[in-house]
Amino acid sequence: xxxxxxxxxxxxxxxxxxxxxxxxxxxxxxxxxxxxxxxxxxxxxxxxxxxxxxxxxxxxxxxxxxxxxxxxxxxxxxxxxxxxxxxxxxxxxxxxxxxxxxxxxxxxxx
Length: 110
Description:
The chain is α+β, with helices and mostly antiparallel strands and 110 residues long. It is built from 4 helices and 3 strands, in the order H-E-H-H-E-E-H.
């Protein structure tokens, strides 16, 4: 199954969940998503999602100087982002329960 379209639909909540655990800069968030099982997530998609969530008011940002290269822009979740994450968690639980029930149906395979 091509999971590209599925990933697009859940990337916001996945990014919020990762940043909700610990602040992170762009590539750090990508790495944590991949380590968490979303191996196919693209860097450009995550960077775009971080910028969009920041612009919508769900994330804060700050810059941390780096001795090893360019400064890094970190993102953290705020109260609005936590509320958004909780609402999306609830929606996900409901949706996944419904879809799981549909996939488990037995009967005439017409």
